[in-house]
């Protein structure tokens, strides 16, 4: 089912469920803590449905998480076709490994950082940006599930030293994540010189059946890697970038040092 069709279905069911309870838009808005104009905009499709709205609707209408589930389905359907196999792998992986030479990996990004990154494409509609931010934050929930994957992330020191207002919050977030036993963050120091990781970001997922899936990103699209040769190459490059990165304790100390440059929060 296409994402737009799913969104239309959600709007239709929201109107029907609200009407079945006997609530008008004003009363429903009051109980969900949204304005009547917002309720009207959501139900007519002039405002995007987001997870906070779907969550409150499920609570007030006692629908058992129906609208949240439908919205997540719509968000997944709106992802590019080339990205969906990676999303499937990421959602069930036992281990995830990420490397990015210029940015904090998506699974470790704050909402503000993610929004800023997604706005790099200044032709992207704001509604699409917000949908992508919501989807990225939803993906991050695997870090807090009962049996989370082991996550090993490597990033370049230069990605941490960007002088931007969003970085203080992002660095503090990385430090909190690094306290989790299943999250391992490593930083390649700026004086490491040239290394293979400068060729671009990569990701690897170890699935429950022992198989692996790789992912490469570029300016236009992404590529899911499943071939034996391709995975062997990504594995070798991962070992290379991991080898030039600092141990976790030293990496955390470096992140704290950079965070201190932003002053007290």
Automatic annotation (TrEMBL):
InterPro entries: Cro/C1-type_HTH (IPR001387), DUF5753 (IPR043917), Lambda_DNA-bd_dom_sf (IPR010982). It comes from the Bacteria. SMART domains: HTH_XRE. Signal peptide: none annotated. Transmembrane segments: none annotated. Pfam families: DUF5753, HTH_31. Residues 14-67 form the HTH cro/C1-type domain. One of its GO terms (molecular function) is DNA binding. This is Helix-turn-helix domain protein.
């Amino acid at each position: 089912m296409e994402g737009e069709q799913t969104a239309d279905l959600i709007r239709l069911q929201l109107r029907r469920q609200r009407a079945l309870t006997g609530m008008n838009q004003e009363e429903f808005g009051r109980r969900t803590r949204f304005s009547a104009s917002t309720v009207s905009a959501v139900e007519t499709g002039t405002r995007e449905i987001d997870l906070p709205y779907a969550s409150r609707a499920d609570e007030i209408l006692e629908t058992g998480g129906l609208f949240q589930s439908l919205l997540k389905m719509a968000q997944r359907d709106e992802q590019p076709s080339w990205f969906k196999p990676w999303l499937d792998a990421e959602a069930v992986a036992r281990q995830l490994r990420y490397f990015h030479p210029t940015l904090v990996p998506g699974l470790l990004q704050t909402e503000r950082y993610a929004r800023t990154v997604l706005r790099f494409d200044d032709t992207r509609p704001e509604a699409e940006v917000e949908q992508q931010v919501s989807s990225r934050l939803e993906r991050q929930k695997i870090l807090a599930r009962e049996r989370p994957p082991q996550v090993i992330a490597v990033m370049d020191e230069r990605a941490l030293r960007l002088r931007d207002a969003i970085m203080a919050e992002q660095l503090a977030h990385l430090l909190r994540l690094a306290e989790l036993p299943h999250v391992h963050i490593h930083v390649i120091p700026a004086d490491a010189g040239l290394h293979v990781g400068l060729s671009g970001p990569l990701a690897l997922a170890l699935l429950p059946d022992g198989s692996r899936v790789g992912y490469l990103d570029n300016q236009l699209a992404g590529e899911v890697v499943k071939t034996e040769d391709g995975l062997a190459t990504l594995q070798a490059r991962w070992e290379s970038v991991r080898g030039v990165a600092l141990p976790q304790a030293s990496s955390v100390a470096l992140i704290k040092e950079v965070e201190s440059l932003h002053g007290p929060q």
